[in-house]
Amino acid sequence: MKKGALIICSCLLTLLFASYTNDQYKPSSLKDAFKNKFYIGVALNLRQIWAKDTAGLAIVKKHFNSIVAENCMKSMNLQPKEGQFQFRDADQFVAFGEQNNMYIIGHTLIWHSQTPRWFFVDEKGNDVSREVLIQRMKSHITTVVSRYKGRVKGWDVVNEAILDDGSYRKSKFYTIIGEDFIRLAFEFAHAADPDAELYYNDFSMSVEGKRNGVVKMVTQLKNQGVKVTGVGMQGHLGLDYPTLGDFEKSIQAFSATGVKVMITELDITVLPNPGQNRGAEVNLNYDYKKAMNPYADGLPKSVEMKLQQRYVDFFRLFLKHQEKISRVTLWGVTDEDSWRNNWPVFGRTDYPLLFDRQFKAKPMVEMIVGISKK
Ligand code: G3I
To answer: Is 160 a catalytic residue?
Structure first.
């Protein structure tokens, strides 16, 4: 009898301890909160890559388990002139990722923006032939992906090739090669590193026309036997756009094609939009007007609360679909780092990220950690 009572007692104690630790366990960081759910990533700038921004790096090491280079792996930085590769920054970025056990993402191999003009023209400045541009694409992708084979785990292979109405962007890649440039880019990347994950990445992905266009394209690629591992929804959001419902429809639609879904460049602007475009057309810009920069001296509590609620709402949505979502990446460490301070109006003060200009976690970080346990 004694032995039986002892066994029951120890079982009860174990159960009690387990329930206590489970309910009371408080993750101390974002990466702990989302462990076994999805990677939580962040974009790094050169000051962080070269360890100049020590305060920012402390946040990166504590809260994140995935990194992407904000700029240094774009073709204009990697191959500014034909055949002249400069890998110093990218090598340092990958080395930092390996030293800190990060899931490393390469951004981005083929993009209409930030591609050096030499890709598209001959010595006379005329458009090159389809064959020449395909060869230049192949050389760039093969050289870059091979260099980081087995180290960069996933690549944004093609960035922003579809417009809001679902049609193809009439970039030079499209007009010279045709829509096939997308299939070719994925095939070149896959040949260079068969184990790397390969993504299509774009903004405004909750717009119905773009959603349908991307679903059609990804389905076509998969039917052609092309390896497409995932779709990146960039996640450049505003306080009042897009609706959670439209964003959720896109998560479901992309996942239904059989690929992973990622939120790849998350930030939420609190600033007024001078134009109609709600995307991230990086080449858009407007003259500075004071009215467009209402929070230069600080963020009113009411706006801070709205921003907080938006982040909590979206992270609740990501958790609801955690089986579809493999990664959520913030597009910068602190508000000071954000491209939003200078787009589409240069010289504004935005507050789009999770950490403030004093490198402090905003209250919403604890709230987001809290909902991860539910
Ligand atoms: O590094 C130079 C610096 O030496 C120079 O003094 C300065 C002034 O000209 O420019 C600096 O380079 C800038 C770079 O950001 C680093 O700050 C480039 O001009 C500027 O164009 C570049 O902007 C980046 C933009 O992509 C264009 O590449 C933003 O930081 C980056 O956040 C943004 O990210 C894009 C994604 O790659 C794709 N999705 C949309 C997203 C937002 O546009």
So the answer is: yes
Q: What are phi and psi of 62, to 5 degrees?
A: -80, -40
Q: How far does the centroid of ligand 1 lie from the alpha carbon of residue 284, in Å?
A: 13
CA distance 117 to 125: 9
- Mention every residue, 6+ apart, whose C-beta is less than 8 A from residue 278: 204, 238, 241, 242
- Is residue 265 part of the annotated active site? The answer reads yes
Show the domain range for 95. Answer: 38-372
pLDDT in tens, the chain (374 residues): 567 666 666 666 655 555 445 556 678 899 999 999 999 999 999 999 999 999 999 999 999 999 999 999 999 999 999 999 999 999 999 999 999 999 999 999 999 999 999 999 999 999 999 999 999 999 999 999 999 999 999 999 999 999 999 999 999 999 999 999 999 999 999 999 999 999 999 999 999 999 999 999 999 999 999 999 999 999 999 999 999 999 999 999 999 999 999 999 999 999 999 887 788 988 889 999 999 999 999 999 999 999 999 999 999 999 999 999 999 999 999 999 999 999 999 999 999 999 999 999 999 999 999 999 87
Measured by CA distance, the residue closest to atom 32 of ligand 1 is 339
How many independent structural domains does the chain possess?
A: 1
In a domain, 142, yes or no: yes
Instruction: Kindly give the distance from the C-alpha atom of residue 316 to the centroid of ligand 1, in angstroms, as a whole number.
Output: 30
Q: How far is the CA of 312 from the centre of ligand 1 (A)?
A: 28
- Residue 328 φ/ψ, nearest 5 degrees: -125, 115
Ligand 1 environment, Cβ below 6 A: 70-71, 74, 114, 159, 203, 234, 265, 280, 282, 339
Residue 71: CATH number of its domain = 3.20.20.80
Q: Judge whether 9 lies within some domain.
A: no
Rg (CA), the chain: 22
